Amino acid sequence: MRESKVLNKLRSGGYALCTQIGSAAAPFVGMAAQIGYDCVWIDQEHKAISDSMLRECIYASQIYDCDTVIRILKRSYADYFRPLEDGATGIMVPHCMSAEDAAIAARNTKFYPLGLRGQDFSSLGSDFMTSKPEAVMEHSNKHTFTMLQVEDVEALRDLDGIVQTEGVEILFIGPTDLLQSSKKFGLSSSKFLEEAYKKVNDAVSKRKGVWWGTTVGSPEAAKSVYEAGARFINVKGDFSAVLTAFTKTYLDTIDLLER
Asked: Fewer Cβ atoms within 10 A, N terminus or C terminus of the chain?
């Protein structure tokens, strides 16, 4: 069983860099891992990604010792831990609005004594039954992370309760949904997000072993949220990278052909 690069870096006082592979293309996962990203984010909430596609991406990440965090659908309690059984390192739970939501997530992603995650030890996440169950449970509690999304104003009101939930490691601010929830758009959005970053940073500062992160669209923005206290930072993803490359190639070609 491999250790989590994200958690090892955070626990040593560093930061972790992630990128999203929205297409769930295993070669892109391997590419990002080989480049050096600590983690890749795969999204089942907004993308049509099957369990088999997800498994291929997780396997590709493991080849190059890269973490995977899966944003789940929240259809049932099993959605919280099935990707972990397949070898994912973290679970991203969308729209966590309260300490009660946090407790449900921790219960379903952590083994006893932190939670009551369903037990099955036949997949990659438990060395295909070659490790003892007790060792799997202990290792998983230490080297998988539960990441809760702060993307609603209700979550901002119960940050202390969420942070104090045993078994939660990372709060992840979803900026676009949080802005929609707060109805703060246009010129007011930047100030609102800065205030949200501060609220979350203040909350996680009260408890050892809990960090926060968010997603950004540029290295400059990554630097900004890092200075605000973020230590798990997702920078862009494959869709935006392909769009940028396609657009530039198209426009550059037209420019050359029509000179």
From this structure: C
